[in-house]
Amino acid sequence: MFSGTGLAGLAPLREMTVGHAIHLLHMHKHAVRGLGRRPGLPPREPGIEEVRAEVVRRIAVLERQDRS
Questions:
Q1: What is the pLDDT of residue 29?
Q2: Which tens digits make up the pLDDT trace of 4-54?
Q3: Which of helix, strand or coil describes residue 58?
Q4: How many CA atoms lie within 13 A of 36 on its CB side?
Q5: Up-side HSE of residue 14: CA atoms within 13 Å toward CB?
Q6: How far apart are CA 11 and CA 6, in angstroms?
Q7: What does the alpha-carbon distance between residue 31 and residue 38 come to, in Å, rounded to a whole number?
Q8: What is the C-alpha to C-alpha distance for residues 63 and 68, in angstroms, rounded to an integer?
Q9: Which residue from 29, 24, 26 is spatially nearest to 13, judged by alpha carbons?
Q10: Looking at the predicted structure, is the pLDDT value of residue 1 above 90?
Q11: What is the 3-state secondary structure (H, E, C) of 30-41?
């Protein structure tokens, strides 16, 4: 059971349109599911081994397409 005197220091909510509410829920969905990137972080540069592996993978895809 919870104890206490209740919520303290609640500020009144600003008026919100339906469009604002839907947008807020959409942004919250991404935060909850961990989608997207964190703001302000630079993209990570791949290492040379990752680049080589990706090139080999793409060449294999192209070779399979040529055989088809």
A1: 83
A2: 666 667 777 788 899 999 988 888 887 777 777 666 677 789 999 999 999
A3: helix
A4: 11
A5: 4
A6: 14
A7: 10
A8: 9
A9: 24
A10: no
A11: HHHHCCCCCCCC
